[in-house]
Amino acid sequence: MRWWWAIFVGAGLAAAQQDSEESKTRRPVEPKSSDFRVERSAVPGGAELLTVFGHAAGSTDDNTEGAGIPLVSVLRDTLGDSNPENDRLRYVWVLTAARPTWLQRVAAATPFYYWRASLFKNADRVPSPVLDLSSARRPVWSALAGSVTQLIAFDPHGALLRSSTRSYRNNTRDHRQLHLLEGLAILSQLENAPETDSHLTQSDLLAIQARLSLASQTLGGLVSESHLPDAYMKQRTRSMEDRGHNWELLRQRAEANGLFFEPFGLGGSPTQALVWVAREDAGSARNFDGNLLSMANPFGDSRIKNWTGYSEMRCLETENRCVELIPLALYSLDHPKVPLLLVDFRDTRAPKRREMIRHATVDVLSGIIGYSRWGNWPYFAGTWTWSFVRSRHGVANSRAARIRAYSQVRQWLAFDPMLDPELRADLRRRLETLGVNPLEDSAANEARFAKRQFAALDRYAQDPRGLVQRLERDRKAEGFAYDHGLAARVGLNAAYYATLGLYQHREDNAVALKIRIDGARRASRSVNAVSTDATP
Amino acid sequence: MPLRKTLVENVGRWYIGMHRGANKGGMILVITAIMTASVFGGGVERVVILKVDGLPERVLERYTREARPRLPNISQIFGRDGTSLENFYVRGLSLSAPSWSMLDTGQHAEIRGNVQYDRYTLRAWDYLNFFPFYVGYAMSRRVEMPGVELLDQSGIPLLIDRFPYEQRYQGIQLLQRGIRWSTLQSGLHSKFTSRPIRELFDEWQTGLNMSSTIYEAGERDILREIQGTQVRYLDFFNGEYDHLAHLTADRTVQLHELERLDALVGRLWRAIAASPLAGSTALILVSDHGMNTSEDTISQGYNLVDWFSSSVGGGHHVLTNRHPMTEFKLKGLDPFVSEVITPSRDSAYLSGKSAAYPTVVMDLDGNERASIALRENGLNVVHVLLEQLSDRRTTGALRIAVVDALFAALDRHRAAWSRRAGEINANLIALRQRMDAQEDLVASQPKKWTRRQRDLGLDKAARREIEHLERWREDARRDSQYASILERLLALTPADFDPGKFKAEDLIPAKSLGGVNSIHDLQNYVVGPALGGLVLTADGSIDEEKSFRRINYFAALSAISVRNNVQKSVLPQPVESIAVSISREALIRAFPEEGARIEDGVWFWRSPERQAVILTRHNAMGRLELRYVPVAHLTQDAAGDLRFERPEWTAGFPLEIPEDTELNAPSKEWLSAWHDETAWFKTVHRTRYSNGLIGIVEALLESRADEGVFPDWRRGRLRSDLLVFANDHWNFNVRGFNPGGNHGSFLRTSTHSVLLVAGGKDTGIPKGLRIETPYDSLSFVPTILMLMGKSEPNLPGPVIQELIGPSVEPRPTGGGGAR
User: Which chain B residues are closer than 8 Å to A238 by Cβ?
Assistant: First the structure.
């Protein structure tokens, strides 16, 4: 069991080093205007790489070159022509994170380890795509296969194997979701940038966003292409409704409790909000209803009385006075039903503690004890009822929604130019503690990682044995799928494996393949357009 | 044939009307109607009405007037090939229940909110709650939505009632008669069993939408019915835009919903075009109100329930029809709820008695306005004194003074309360006679029905009679209980006040508000004993001024201000204005120059210095006339006399009329004179508050001219005291949050609604016509009836002349008919 402790110590050291790196780079700068733009670069073999760049606010890392930070890259297979009818979007890379290191993977497989563990970096390795838009189903089957393997192969072999494999799988899934949602948050900013139309059409953008959003659901990758507009619109509607709802909820709760509410967000759409208290009010005793605010009573709280942290002076026109405001909490508004508490300024570790308790509960029940929602109906009924009642009382239950909120706040902190640099630095420092996933990287490193990841991707894109070869392989697979039905494909693949590769199905030459794919893509696009317009 | 029949019917009505002494104006209207119908009307044999809740004209126009319209079907069908009204407005409050009731009946407002409570018994008319109706219908206890029930009791028919049962198809909506289970059944069937699994899976992953299931099933039904020739009235209600726009102001999301609506219009039109009655079918798209939704502003809510239950608001126990913050309560899952009491922790004299004594009742749905009813002020004084007497510590001189004060208070109200008890008892006698007759009727009805009888709706008609009987029974029980407690209170003698001998609960009606409060009451509203308790004067009597805590609700509500106002375009004060009705007697005394012709009046408060009195009367032609009088510092004394100043009419008065650049008045002096409502309508409809001047009268005042036509003595009991309007982008919703947008006020963005008409080649409906003349809800029914050759001249609203044909004699617009 000693190796467990070694991992804990190693990962702890990593976390400490990361904190110290972060504190060194934290230098407040004047906020710059935030903008996102898309750059196109050609990829040999008839494709192009579309990369979204953003100007990070409050960081000196990106601005020296004026190019901004590369955030997300999308590969568009154009078949080498200029006709958009036969284009196909393929891979999406979120560049702000690198592949996890071996230490991170080991830590991720360690039950009850809820800290970051990024001692070594893989920033210069070719990034792996977060999603293949042309094969959105593959991750679903992989995940299902993983679940089956877990149930059959790992779960029956004791608590240690069960809990570590489950822990690893949960962390991997959360890590992927975080980056899917980071990609989504970045791409959604392009909706307000009409100049991106020349690179990414609205329908392309919509399709990517829908796929990224669906990919964070277990079976979301199986949704057919014709339903993507509907999926996008439903997702957008839910998100917009949540934001408005939580904006109002928080404003009214702040008002009722004598606090101050301040919304923030990129592109004029509020996604976060701060709640403040006036120092002079905090000394007085008054009724406080913390319901739905998830915070302790600030009135009469000695931590507020003796507050030395960040504060702001504000003049209140309606009350004819100027007051010193002390931040109490930061919330995400893009969360179902209730605003999600992300930072509690009086108790920075409180949100993390809550998150750790939630994770630990899951790890104990499913990892140690071995309960499964699908194999134990009383447990399923009990957890469902518990979640339902808790959610009626305004408790944030959804793990996926919490990850989305977390990914959004990282984007907001990185790119909102209106935020006071000192407050940004304070929030970043506090949010750093929130990470519970060992596979996760510090937000402070994102800008540097992104540049190195982009450089690695660029090298890969220009390498004839890199992306070019992969593209070729993908086209063959695409042509193969167009030409052969499911049964034929299974049969041909079986023949390949049965003969240990001696038999290999040969397709036409590259030119003929391109012509076939061109025709098939156009036909597919027409069918999708028709089925999207279909009447109920 | 229908043309000739209508002509004969109208002549008959005119003849009967003449001999009953109908006014000359009415006769002229009859003749005009007959002539117009005979020349132009009657080409429409079938009407298909698409009712879209909350669709604002402004939003629709934005997307249909573009070079490449985003809503191609609506643009083409109604814009190029049909007729659209540029200025079609809600009359009265821009709320769904009242507005649809006027659109569906063509009569003045009988329904004045989304929920109304009987002041004496607090029995709820919850017009928006479908669940009790559906369950009641399934259990064969109910046959229509509460709104229809109320209209039936008032003798007001719906448009659909003009068609025989077998000739109508009605979709699911607020004013619904009966339920088509087949629609629900086919909806579920098609959702889960008749679709490819692939499609169902995709929908499951992207989010199942059950309401769309119902709409799709309804659409399939109506498309099928359109292919036949039997059904001549079809309607389809869609509330999706309204629902969505309340929740989000996001332009993309709202446009997507409109595109779905546009596609629906296209499908309906294509189905009509392919049907045997294509040439004689009219397709009409109508909305009940607009929506104050703006992409760059979040609508802010203010919780008036919390305010009224707080000490500042009076410490009231507050009754609403839904749970505040419904989504965060397990109780909020109860779909049958129509009565929720929020207890106050600050009640000065009713602590712990919230279940029996809610003293404020609110209708907050709709959101830009709140209808607030407070318990009769006189009852509060009596109740405070009774509570004092039931306290054993009230002894000696104080006890004697309290008893004296109690009887003095009772004596002040004795005449009114005795009259009330007498009226209730008299009405109970009449009601019981009706119940006896009704019981005979119910007993004589068959218990089993043949298929043919069911197809003719006879079973529903029978069930309706049972439903009326049950409601009357419940009304009689509650009224009788209320009257007996009131009589017990009036029969008190000083000897009854030995400590321990009485309980306040036996003398003060529980769950009752009593009569309507006067302005004096609302300016001096008693919310409990004074903080220091009751105070005696030098002569040993109770000092009424110092003994009670009083609130002036006009000043108090206007003083509400929030600190968390983070949007520059939104004011920190949620309350914009308050309106109350004024008694005729007080008005006649206050405006002696007007004489006894004044009929009613409304006091519109905006601030102490910016107020208005709106006076009403009828002219010789029987048309309603209005006069706007700017006033300041209006007060009413205990005797009912009004005192006020008459300032210059400058900017900032309620409805902001003279300063509005869209005002179409010939001169400033014109504004200060009496004008009929048609003239006012044409003058003000483009202003910021559009037809608010007419709307406030419609919303608050009883339709005097209708007395005797709809002899329901109960309607006065559904009145509220205060109509509170929110400032722009504020709302009073407490059930949840409506950040996307709201309606309910007189802001043009909320009252400006949609009316679009298109028809087949035989209908005579003009193509490419855009009507600029303003019309309101009251014109909808008479116009459709005229188009179908079924005109009814006794409807108060004018026909939309431009739609019928070349203008013969323009009739008054804006509901110019007698109220």
Answer: 207
Does the beta carbon of B250 lie under 8 angstroms from any beta carbon of chain A?
A: yes
Percentage of chain A modeled with pLDDT above 70: 88
Q: Do B206 and A214 touch (CB under 8 A)?
A: yes
Which CATH number do you get for residue B265? 3.40.720.10
B306 touches chain A (CB under 8 A): yes
| pLDDT digit string, tens, across residues B275-291 | 999 999 999 999 999 99
Q: Is residue B139 part of a domain?
A: no
Please judge whether B330 and A392 are an interchain contact, meaning their C-beta atoms are less than 8 angstroms apart: yes
Cα A472 from Cα A475, distance rounded (Å): 5
B306·A536 Cβ contact <8 A: no
- Return the pLDDT at A59: 58
pLDDT digits (tens, 9 = 90+) for B683-705: 999 999 999 999 999 999 876 44
Place of tokens 């009990």: A382
Are residues B222 and B364 located together in one domain of the fold?
no
Domain range summary for chain A, segments of one domain joined by +? 2-240+349-462, 484-532
Instruction: Annotate B635-654 with b (16+ C-beta within 10 A) or e (fewer).
Output: ebeeeeebebeeeebeeebb
Q: Which residue's structure tokens are 């919310």?
A: B527
What percent of chain B has pLDDT above 90?
74
Q: How far is A225 from chain B (nearest CA, A)?
A: 10
Residues A350/A340, Cβ–Cβ less than 8 Å: no
Q: Which residues contact A460 (CB under 8 A, 6 or more apart)?
A: A126, A466, A467
Q: Are residues B284 and B309 in the same domain?
A: no
Say what the pLDDT of residue A485 is: 77
B562 touches chain A (CB under 8 A): yes
pLDDT of res. B17: 39
Partners of A40 in beta bridges? A50
Return the amino acid letter for B95: L
Q: Residue B684: is it exposed, middle or buried by C-beta count within 10 angstroms (0-12/13-18/19+)?
A: buried
Distance CA A48, CA A73 (A): 10
pLDDT higher than 50, residue A294: yes
- Is residue B514 situated within a structural domain? yes
* Together in a domain, B470 and B521: yes
Among candidates B209, B267, B329 on the partner chain, residue whose Cβ is nearest the Cβ of A392? B329
Span B185-203, average pLDDT: 84
- Do B687 and B764 fall into the same domain? no
Q: How far is B30 from chain A (nearest CA, A)?
A: 46
Q: How does residue B707 score in pLDDT terms, banded at 50, 70 and 90?
A: very low
The reply to whether B201 touches chain A by the CB within 8 Å rule is yes
**For the packed helices A399-415 and A158-188, what is the interaxial angle rounded to 10 degrees?**
40
The answer to whether residues B662 and B757 belong to one domain is: no
Query: Which one of B206, B210, B255, B328 makes the best mutation probe of the A interface by having the most chain A beta carbons within 10 Å?
Result: B206
Query: Cβ of A392 and B219 within 8 Å?
Result: no
Nearest-CA residue of chain A relative to B264?
Answer: A535
Q: Is residue B813 part of a domain?
A: no
- Residue B55 in contact with partner chain A when CB distance is under 8 A: no
Q: For residue B730, is it within any domain? A: no
Q: pLDDT at position B807, please?
A: 43
Rounded to an integer, what distance in angstroms lies between the CA atom of residue A510 and that of residue B291? 58
CB pair distance less than 8 Å for A248 and B327: no
Q: What is the mean pLDDT of residues A169-187?
A: 91
Judged by CB atoms closer than 8 Å, whether chains meet at B328 and A394 is answered as yes
Query: What's the structural domain count of chain B?
Result: 3
Q: Is B253 on the interface with A (CB under 8 A)?
A: yes
Residues B643 and B692 occupy one common structural domain: yes
| Of the listed ranges A492-501, B305-314, B747-756, the one predicted with least confidence | A492-501
Higher pLDDT, A390 or B772: B772
- Judge if B539 and B582 occupy the same domain: no
User: Which residues of chain B are within 8 Å of residue A256 when distances are taken between CB atoms?
Assistant: 303, 306
Q: pLDDT-based confidence at B36, cuts 50/70/90?
A: very low
Q: Report ipTM (2 d.p.).
A: 0.89
B201, B564, B740: residue with CB nearest A255: B564
Q: Are B703 and B108 in contact (CB under 8 A)?
A: yes
| Residue numbers of the domain that contains B516 | 303-555
B449 shares its domain with B531: yes
pLDDT of B590 higher than 50? yes
